[in-house]
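Entry: Amidophosphoribosyltransferase
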Amino acid sequence: MPAFTWKSFLLLNDDHLCVACKNHLVKIERPICPTCGRAQSNDQLCQDCNRWNERSDSIKILVKNRSVYTYNELMKDVLARFKFRGDTALAELFQKDVQAAFKHSFCIKDPLLIPIPLSHERLKERGFNQSVLIASLLDKPILQPLVKIHQSKQSKKKKNERLDQKGLFQIKQTDAIVQRDIILVDDIYTTGATIYDAARILKDAGAKSVSSFTLIRS
């Protein structure tokens, strides 16, 4: 009997999602927060982004974030299997939606994709970086100049602890990012702390602009 994977469960045939699952993967549509891309009832800046704008170290750091899906119960389970249980084939299921959302969201001529890295310890534990897999779906130049400093898992921290985090990354090369339009790629945007910290170090290193693109906006 072939091994069970979520790809085999979600696929009906010919690389199409089964109708029941597809109807529960909710793509983000307007209105959204103009900065973080969160789905909401209006197109005004959300409370989280207002909070970021009140911080002197975060003003004009991130142009915008855009995401493909909202975070519901099905996506929570899919993400857990993709990210923590190693079912990397799931990335292929999102390729069409990821490419369409990216094309709709960004008109930058020559963007440089930078996946959010894992720490050496986390990468060894997991065996792959889910952000690199997502970035690879976009068929654009990818650079990995950031090094993640190992810390406790984000999911174990309270919201205020995440928002106050700094110094999550180091940068190992800068020449290739000077005066480039950077798009950070990650699996999920939650508080924005990870994205803002990475954007801050890239801007300090000479990036022309930094935006971000994630599979999910929680």
